[in-house]
Amino acid sequence: MASYTSFLGLRYGFSRQRSRFTALVSMASMLGMMLGVASLITVLSVMNGFAGELRGRILALIPHAYVELLPAQDSKKGEESARATEALSSDLLADPRILAIAPFVRETVLFSGPYRQQGAVLTGIDISRQSALTELEDFLRVGRLEDLREDFTVILGSSMARMLGVVPGDELRIVLPQVSVTPLGLFPRSRLLTVVGLFEVGAQQDSMLAYVSLPTANRLLKTGGTRGLQLRTSDLMTAPTLGAALDPVLQGRGVYRPWSETQGSLFRAIRMEKLTVSILLLGVVLVAAFNVVSTLVMAVTEKRRDIAVLRTMGATPGDISLIFLTQGLALALLGVMAGAAAGSLLSVYVADLVDFFERLFGARIFDPSVYFISRLPSELLWTDVLAVSAAAAMLSVLAAIYPAWRASRIAPAEVLRYE
């Protein structure tokens, strides 16, 4: 007898004795819940895939962290600067979370090609150590890092080279943020560089980054040393929290700058976009929850006589509420489980499904010549599945409360007066 409320709730929800219209509305509420949950899980998985694709491409050229030398340290010249930099590198490498270190020089410059001018971030790198820090060499489409050993050579992003109108082997002029004093006045310093390679990651870096060797950068910028150190840590995601632990090691010699300071705004924008889309699509689930309300209201109207009989047999108002809460939750949870299963399967095979439709209709949704990707990326996270399912179940509970409460308020005497 303790479970009769659950039995009656399930019987009311799936009995064949319901009216056809009530059964149709019940089916519509289940399908609406299933479609809402499935679409939300699929969209979140696709957005996870895009975020992972961007993270893999953008952070492929970005070290996990930088240590920018302070002015007092940076002002040292020659052998003194090299010894101080190596000492700082040795101290940092003593931490097991630091896997690799290399010096660098970075400056904002202006490139001038045959067709137009383009601003860029010029980075001088240690060629022998760069492979341990970034994946630049893996994304080279033309040339090798070793080609930078020649004086005044440069590797450009493919988009920048296309905008400047240069190809490997061409020369382009670099204008530096420094001036030269001549008898005719002050002129910005400039120099011709030979393009020896092109890289392409399929992101914004292709149009804004350029690389030269560290000796070439020192000669161009007249730094006489390095501007800082590039760091690779054991875990990319914990690099932003490593600064506090390295403060005693730095001891005023440099400032720790994780990748999140330079690229974090982009990924915060992606997270905000994911949250916004989730809230919007949650409206679909909310509409399905309102269908549960309609189903229960019609069920209460149909079962008024049954409610009255149950009350005369000793059922309490709480029992009546529990019967209709069980009915509403059974319909909703069935839709949530079906939606979670469908959304998970669709998230796993969405790329193959898009490929099938591309072959079927002979069209390309993601043209590699236009977009940076050729397939729809998707990454299913079970935390998203659980969060969406829990939110849908919670909305269903809230939707079922009012009709269940109205059922418990039905007076048996009024219903059975003319029976």
Automatic annotation (TrEMBL):
Entry-linked InterPro entries: ABC3_permease_C, Lipoprotein-release_system, LolCE_TM, MacB_PCD
Subcellular localization, as worded in the UniProt entry: Cell membrane
Membrane spanning stretches: 21-47, 275-301, 322-351, 380-402
Any one of the GO CC terms: plasma membrane protein complex
Domain MacB-like periplasmic core positions: 26-245
Protein name: Lipoprotein releasing system, transmembrane protein, LolC/E family
Keyword terms: Cell membrane, Lipoprotein, Membrane, Transmembrane, Transmembrane helix, Transport
Top-rank taxon: Bacteria
UniProt lineage: Bacteria, Pseudomonadati, Pseudomonadota, Gammaproteobacteria, Cellvibrionales
Native organism: Congregibacter litoralis KT71
Membrane topology category: Multi-pass membrane protein
Family assignment from sequence similarity: Belongs to the ABC-4 integral membrane protein family. LolC/E subfamily.
ABC3 transporter permease C-terminal domain location: 279-412
GO-annotated biological processes: lipoprotein localization to outer membrane; lipoprotein transport
Pfam family, one: MacB_PCD
